[in-house]
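User: My collaborator sent over this chain with a note saying "see what the structure looks like." That's all I know about it. Can you take a look?
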Amino acid sequence: MMEAYHNPSAVESGDSAVKSLDDDGREKRTGTFMTASAHIITAVIGSGVLSLAWALAQLGWVAGTIILVAFAIITYYTSTMLADCYRSPDPITGTRNYNYMGVVRTYLGGKKVQLCGLAQYVNLVGVTIGYTITASISLVAIGKSNCFHDKGHKAKCFVSNYPYMAAFGIVQIILSQLPNFHKLSFLSIIAAVMSFSYASIGIGLAIATVASGKIGKTELTGTVIGVDVTASEKVWKSFQAIGDIAFSYAFTTILIEIQDTLRSSPPENKVMKRASLAGVSTTTVFYILCGCIGYAAFGNQAPGDFLTDFGFYEPYWLIDFANACIALHLIGAYQVYAQPFFQFVEDNCNKKWPQSNFINKEYSSSIPLLGKCRVNLFRLVWRTCYVVLTTFVAMIFPFFNAILGLLGALGFWPLTVYFPVAMHIAQAKVKKYSRRWLALNLLVLVCLIVSILAAAGSIIGLINSVKSYKPFKNLDK
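Assistant: Without extra context I'll predict from the sequence alone. Here is the result:
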């Protein structure tokens, strides 16, 4: 019997095979609270954390802190709703839903399934492009840091990010051959450690700057019109900052896929809620520290990324190490976001062409970094093409802050708020026009308005970034 290794439903013969299967006939899940928390932290403490000082500079102490905490509360609240939807109709004993689209299909159905798929997979693809950009920026920063250390902080140090994007893409081509999300635990744990490392270094350097007394000017309302920005810049950058904060809490996009890695006992929804609370609370503490201490250090002139935009120059070896941690973290984070999309495409192809050897047959092989594993030709070709394409797009659009804000704005409302709330209402049978129903729908409406404003600000920011990009300036000449 041919076994498709990347398909968890493949069944081996013998009694041992039966024991290795879950209640749905798929490969036994082994995920725990620890691995789920690692996946969440890898997804959440990402490149967005380093832009929070800039976000607070646009919004100010009051609005910035309130918005940061509000996003954390909303994200955790809706993630608990989503966790209860993994099984249906009962959240503990019901039938499993293997991905976000499957959950929406079960509870809402109709065109909302396609809308969910569009929102989720556009977001996943966008995040992988964003992570490719950020990883290359971090690697470039290492080269620049060494150059500034040798030649002085005002030296003209140019390092191209294209070779680093290509190198990042090559690593992702190799790691993309991991068959599915279930095999990512080791990568997520390493990535989570890296994320804590560079976030801690950033916080430590900011604290040292504040302690030295060389701090920037801060305001309760952030940047000052007429001094730091124009009136229109204040408005649009504030909206873009909200998008950056939204991007920092983007893990609900893959929450169901993470939950599908958990063992069935204790109940998956309870473990997922604990993991969500641990992930959101831990990252929020880091976010507040990074955002607030970073803003205190740099003031209204806070850079978009205070490690790669050289808010700090020394000690250069520590800056180098922090940027290396960012790149290593993003190697794992890329896979956390890419694997659900890989699985979606491959599952649909398996269903459409079940007899195709190209799509279904697997071969034993040894792959660098991964060791001995099974290789599927379709998986090899398709995933390689995907990585090449996202790397190419990243080379065309190397605009960090604006892309972060846009991705956050586009993904936050539908995936973090609307669908979880709508499915909770359907599952809990919340009575229409009851106080709870009205409160939930008010939450949805307010978050929609916030997302629209954040998207508008990010689009304006992206347009300005394109206009100021040097290759495009040269074309105009």
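A starting point for your reply to your collaborator: Residues 353 and 359 are 7 Å apart (CA to CA).
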